[in-house]
Write a structure and sequence with these properties.
The protein is an alpha/beta fold. The protein contains eight helices and six strands; from the N terminus they run E-H-H-H-H-H-E-H-E-H-E-H-E-E. It has two domains: about 130 residues, 3-Layer(aba) Sandwich (Rossmann fold), CATH 3.40.50.1000; about 80 residues, Transcription Termination Factor Rho, Rna-binding Domain, Chain A, Domain 1 (Orthogonal Bundle). Helices cover about 45% and strands about 10% of the residues. The chain has a six-stranded parallel sheet, sandwiched between helices. Helix 1 crosses helix 4, helix 2 packs antiparallel against helix 4 and helix 7 crosses helix 8. The longest helix is centred in the N-terminal third of the chain and has 23 residues. It starts with 7 loop residues before the first strand and ends in an 8-residue tail after the last strand. Bound molecules: magnesium ion.
Length: about 230
């Protein structure tokens, strides 16, 4: 990389450590198929009740359980990033992972790279638009075991959008390094641009032909190619 030694790595998940298809073709359909029955079985739990109240608040009226399920299914179909939907999906996924029906996808080069960087004393962080709960589930249940002990902390959109410079400034503050000591990994050019504008070093991970090249950023095909 550049002149400054890297002390921390901040990584995106979808398209970087893990396949985009895993989220869209496995996780979302898994929750979509189960949410109606799952609500029926779990609506009495306080944590579920709180989220159903939040759904009613967003919709602006009282909902029966069936109506709430209608709304949530529609939100999944529209890819709405509503907070109560994310929370309920997280609970359904947690059960799926615990039962071994779901396994968090990581590319084969991901665990080796994370272990190598962690062993070299780098602090590892995640920044993804999926909730921190969902991030921990993915890395906690991979075919290569539980990778969560390798990470120092996790950030989601509560810190701000992934294409906003301010988000990366807030993350730099939380990490406690100089921005140029942090390397940000992502497949998306606009995210890399925002991170660079906040002073971070950047590297684009181009996993397949669908990824749009991000001019001005270093590119690798796998995490194994990243030399610090
Ligand atoms: Mg991505």
């Amino acid at each position: 990389m550049g002149g400054q030694p890297i002390k921390a790595i901040l990584t995106d998940i979808e398209g970087t450590t893990s396949s985009i298809d895993f989220v869209h073709e496995t996780l979302f359909p898994y929750a979509r198929a189960r949410i109606r029955d799952w609500l029926r079985a779990n609506a009495h739990q306080d944590e579920v009740h709180i989220q159903l109240d939040a759904v009613e608040q967003l919709v602006g009226c009282d909902l029966s359980l069936a109506e709430a399920a209608d709304v949530l299914e529609q939100w999944i179909d529209e890819d709405r990033k509503a907070t109560p939907l994310k929370a309920l999906q997280g609970m359904i996924w947690a059960e799926g992972y615990a039962q071994g029906e779901l396994q968090g996808h990581v590319y084969p080069d991901t665990p080796a790279a994370l272990h190598r960087w962690h062993g070299d004393g780098l602090a590892l962080y995640v920044y993804s638009s999926g909730s921190v709960t969902a991030q921990k589930l993915i890395f906690g249940h991979t075919a290569h075991g539980d990778l969560t002990p390798l990470f120092t902390d996790y950030f989601d959109t509560r810190v701000g959008g992934k294409r906003e410079v301010a988000s990366y400034r807030a993350i730099v503050e939380a990490v406690g390094c100089a921005p140029e000591e942090i390397l940000f990994l992502s497949d998306v050019g606009a995210e890399l641009d925002a991170a660079r504008d906040a002073g971070l070093q950047t590297c684009q991970v181009v996993r397949d032909g669908k990824t749009q090249a991000a001019p001005g950023h270093r590119q690798v095909a796998t995490l194994a190619e990243i030399k610090l």
